[in-house]
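Issue: ligand-bound run for pyridoxal-5'-phosphate - logging full I/O for the record.

Environment: standard queue, default settings, no custom constraints.

Inputs:
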Amino acid sequence: MNTPLGTDRQQAARDHLWMHMARHSGLHNGGKVPIISRGEGHMIYDDAGRGYIDGLAGLFVVNAGHGRAELAEVMAKQAEKLAFMPLWSYAHEPAIDLAERLAGYAPGDLNRVFFTTGGGEAVESAFKLAKQYFKLKGQPGKTKVISRALAYHGTPQGALAITSLPGMKTPFEPLVPGTFRVPNTNFYRAPEMFSENEKDFGLWAAERIREAIEFEGADSVAAVFLEPVQNSGGCFPPPPGYFDRVREICDEYDVLLVSDETICAFGRIGDMFACNDFGYTPDIITSAKALTSGYVPLGVMIASEKLFEPFTKGDTTFYHGYTFGGHPVAAAVAMANLDIFEREDLNGNVHRNADAFKSTLEKLKDIDIVGDVRGAGYFYGIELVKDKSTKETFNDEESERLLRDYLTPALWEAGLYCRADDRGDPVIQLAPPITIGQPEFDQIESILRSVLSEASSKI
Ligand SMILES: Cc1ncc(COP(=O)(O)O)c(C=O)c1O
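Outputs:
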């Protein structure tokens, strides 16, 4: 007789569960899979009942915190009333209400709301819309896309083509052609001549977009995809004036500006949409993750009236869709999630406490390997360096020992779930639920202090 399901989940995970972006070799050598059983507020608990601070809100997702019974109840009610209808030429109340609400939060005339099930699909949708829009406008050659070094925009083959992490792309090449890279806004590693002047650095970085458009030919470029604060590489905020200049360049060359807010929306930086925090109006916003605080999957592309206009005529159709995009249960949960944001003023919590969060983390700069603390809102990256005076980074082997062999398990052991990442230079990333305040900032700092202080001796 087979053993009943659930008897040995470690073994079953090793035998059957193909985890995402995971190295399975370690597991097959006897490594243990962390199994998370429940969450409450800003805490998650493993299958042995041990608690951890959720320093990453799952994966930049659970902004309103775990364990909200209210959201579970909304889910159950909606599933009972209408479990499913697609948005393929039909509509349902939760999707209509949510579309209206999101259009209200979005800047300018970004009024047209297209639902997906996640961020990669939202990026994919924006890429396809940009191409079709220009075809409909009689500029069929405008198909190319520009994005920034190290940026991550998702895994579908179009979104992956826009992503700028060679290690994640090469196994799947050839990808969608016609994507190009410009520098990101990592001020810590800005060219020497800008080391004292962030504004000039931002203008220089914006000019690289203009240059790329000119190199490729404006007639061939459809869109620029940028995150408000770039996640991959370790939280690069936009220098002052950067987005103003990018907007001017996009207008001058008739190139669409896509604000990929898969992470940065819904309070992560402070506003419902981070473009509002930084004062620019894109042509398209893409988002997902915290729209439902992760209680169910949902993504979104929000486009301006200009982009929708050609689709109001004759038989013109955006032949694009997802069975589960804008699922009624997901849309109902998103509405209830946003009700919580407003009722508890979660965005206000971020606006009031972001500086305190940053300055608490900045205390870590007295540790020998902490080179930089950067970010905005409740979204920070701590860059680790071998030599603070020269900013020398770790080589691949050292980085492997530091991040994978030491930091990831040590932080977990010390009770903090966060990300130790080496997609650029090594960084620790923090993006906790936006419900927390100073007591939790202090706990996070204290755990990081004890673990990072030991790190040099482990390399
Ligand atoms: C900026 C950005 N775009 C797109 C994606 C892809 O989102 P998803 O994993 O929901 O497809 C992510 C995921 O983290 C992201 O950070």
